[in-house]
Amino acid sequence: LNQLKLTAGTERIDNLHEFRFDRPAVDALVPQHYYLAYAADANQPLTSNQEFLLEAETSIPVLLKQLRGSNNLYQQIELLHSLSKLKGLDFGTGFGGAGVRVTVANLIDEVYFKAGNFSNRPHWEIVRYAAGLLNKVEISLSDAVTDILIDGKQITVGMAYSEASTIDAPMSHTEIAEKIDKFCREDIRDRVLTQEIIIYLGLLIKSQPTLVKGLLTLRVGYLIILLTSELAIELGMTQDTAYEKLMTLSPFEIQTRLSQVLTDYQGVGKIVFQQESLHLNQSQHQIAWVVNTIDPSVQNPPATPIDWRYQRCKDGAIVRVDRDFYPSVWRLLEHCQGITIGDKLEKRNRLDSEIILSEMTPGEKNFALRIEHLLNKIVAPEYRQLNIEALIALAALSERNPDLDIEEYIVLDVLIGHAVRLAWLDVDLPKHTTAQLDRAAFIPTNYEHYKSLAWSAFYQSSPQICANYIVKSLQFLSQIAVAS
After folding, report:
1. I need a surface site. Which of 64, 99, 216, 462 has the fewest CB within 10 A?
2. How far is it, in rounded angstroms, from Cα 285 to Cα 421?
3. CA atoms of 296 and 467, how far apart (whole Å)
4. How far apart are CA 179 and CA 157, in angstroms?
5. Beta carbons of 174 and 140 less than 8 angstroms apart
């Protein structure tokens, strides 16, 4: 009851206009028939490899066959997600038999109900997963946003750094949901968690306004990173594993942790910085921090400046790579614990070096397909191309330093993010990328306020410049490790 009070509202209604609340209205909310098998002791989270195989499966008969034979809610929701991506929520599954049409949406709704009601403690990660797939929207979102705006704050959703991801005016709950869907991470559960965070922020602003004092923009995506990082430190696990743990927490537990994170906002931010550090087996001066990648703008200077962002959009759209690209990534895995390509909080995006090197060869087609699959999951083609360039630069660095060994996973999201920041703070950025800006007006320490401009400038930099900053980023992250 105490948990419910935190998100409940009260209102006096003197006249119900002869409305009568009866039992059938409640019964209509409960699934009348169950079509999927269920066994409480079989409900176990899947391994990253199991999830990857389900994600990569495109055969509808195979997916339906596995769904019929499954009694694990975790497997069922993954299979239903694959079916919804391939055929949509209204696809008839054939589970109802003759005369009864059971859609993917019907089965997701069944899993949603079972995950919340068929055990002593709800499977919150499945509840959020199913809610995301069903596009459920909390109607109090608009009220929460209004409360935040009235307090003089604005909100950004997702990890995008652009004006389009910002909410600075009242919106309906459906408009907010559309913005969340557009900018949130690839994990469908992130959309539901983002709704929760916005609602909790609205409540906290009214009950504990000092928690957000000094914050002009409430970055929901960054708050999720802070929550994840705090869990990772507390439980001694990687960020992607901690994110999975975060999803298992109840709404009340997440609201409590959000309050704690806001209390020590700066302190938790420093923890995130330290968590991103990389430990090397060599000292800084023993490593040749130089890479030479092929840069057509240097070899054959164009008559007119190249629009590198447009070029990256074209190259990234078709994932065009050299023949040696995949073998070089395989060899790069020999120098680190693994690589995460794409969303850093998505555990199935992580390539474990020990597993890959023992099960696959550099020229194996399955390895190339796995890398290509992870790259194709990145929605923005220009960012996909940036990931390819980062892998090429890192591979070149490891070849130049054969004894280099990185003790942690290389997370490309983190590496590229720091490369953009370092490039923005460096006066050596190409002048044509920021010609429209008065750089003197931008104080380097205010980088956080100009991320969208920094990313635009980085996308317009040549591959050689980007490669150099990828290496500088790796060097910076290793220096953090030494300092800490």
Report:
1. 99
2. 23
3. 13
4. 8
5. no
- In sequence order, which residues have a C-beta less than 8 Å from that of residue 144 and are 6 or more positions away? 198, 199, 201, 202, 203
Fill in the DSSP letter of residue 59.
-
Could you tell me if 389 and 466 are in contact, meaning their C-beta atoms sit under 8 angstroms apart?
A: yes
Strand partners, 218: 155
Distance in angstroms (rounded) separating the CA atoms of residues 321 and 132: 34
The answer to whether residues 122 and 181 touch, using CB atoms and an 8 Å cutoff, is no
Q: Concatenated DSSP letters for 363-416?
A: T-HHHHHHHHHHHHT-S-HHHHHHHHHHHHHHHHHHHH-TT--BSSEEEHHHHH
| pLDDT, mean of residues 339-350 | 90
| pLDDT at residue 26 tops 70 | no
**Sign, CA torsion 220/413/371/456:** positive
What's the pLDDT tens digit per position in 231-284? 998 998 888 899 999 999 999 999 999 999 998 877 777 777 777 889 898 888
- For the segment 109-147, what is each residue's pLDDT rounded down to a tens digit? 999 999 998 888 899 999 999 999 999 998 899 999 999
Return d(Cα 184, Cα 158) in angstroms, integer.
4
Distance between CA 89 and CA 104 in Å, rounded? 5
Q: What is the mean pLDDT of residues 391-419?
A: 94
Q: Tell me the whole-structure pTM to 2 decimals.
A: 0.79
Q: Report d(CA 205, CA 183) in Å as an integer.
A: 24
Task: Say how far apart CA 152 and CA 470 lie, in whole Å.
Answer: 37
For residues 369 and 52, the answer to whether their CB atoms sit within 8 Å is: no
Q: Are strands 217-219 and 154-156 parallel, antiparallel or unpaired?
A: parallel
